[in-house]
Design brief:
With about 220 residues, the protein is α/β, with parallel strands linked by helices. The protein contains six helices and 13 strands.
């Protein structure tokens, strides 16, 4: 069986609403952050559906024994925001995964070549290979940043099949690159926009997600 990247664009009115707020250039930074938090929440809700490991057991209700399923506390969960913009989705993601460990990684793109480089890496030297990883990266434009981060994760023992990417705007070049390099991956995004301009920005997109989040 050949693996293929799976990309989900959940058709949810709340996701569409907060995407519209985030796209609007008139949205001030404080509201943009709220929109990103909400997008982080609802996209994470969708992304962890078949990702969170559970254990089947039994509980006693006041009336009778009953089959029950809990989140398995033995399987490590990791949330990885890609700095800076990935932080904008964190609050919403963390609200749903309060026990997940958070590992930061900072990646900056060279403005001319668009080549990514890692300027901060708080990953452990090895992850438990069972770790479920949720990456928050609002803009999947050229695919350079996300493939760099995936390389850092897989060389530390992460299985791409256990990774979910939560994004807000994805573009075809990034998705094609991921499909070639990490075909087992699953991406959840609010939208797929067609174009990436020669500066590496998605069009129409929502502009610079880091600048709009932090008001810079
Ligand atoms: N990063 C952003 O913040 N916006 C884009 O459109 C592309 C990359």
């Amino acid at each position: 069986m050949t693996l293929q990247l799976r990309v989900y664009v959940p058709p949810h009115p709340l996701i569409k609403h907060w995407l519209a707020v985030a796209r609007d250039q008139a949205t001030p930074s404080v509201l943009f952050r709220s929109a990103m938090t909400e997008l982080g929440r609802w996209l994470t809700y969708e992304a962890i559906r078949e990702w969170l490991p559970t254990i089947d057991t039994q509980v006693n209700t006041p009336l009778a024994p009953c089959a029950a399923s809990f989140i398995n506390p033995e399987v490590p969960l990791a949330v990885i925001p890609i700095l800076r913009a990935g932080l904008a989705l964190m609050e919403g993601a963390q609200a749903l995964l309060p026990l997940a460990s958070v590992y930061h990684i900072g990646v900056v793109r060279n403005e001319e070549t668009l080549e990514p480089s890692v300027y901060l890496n708080k990953f452990p030297s090895q992850f438990d290979p069972q770790t479920r990883v949720l990456i928050t990266e609002p803009m999947l434009a050229t695919g350079g940043t996300i493939t760099t981060v995936m390389g850092e994760l897989t060389q530390r023992g992460i299985d791409p099949a256990f990774v979910r990417i939560v994004s807000v705007v994805a573009s075809p070049p990034a998705l094609q690159k991921l499909n070639v390099t990490y075909p087992g991956l699953v991406v959840y995004t609010a939208t797929i926009d067609e174009t990436v301009n020669d500066k590496g920005y998605i069009v129409p997109g929502l502009g610079d997600a880091g600048d709009r989040t932090f008001g810079t």
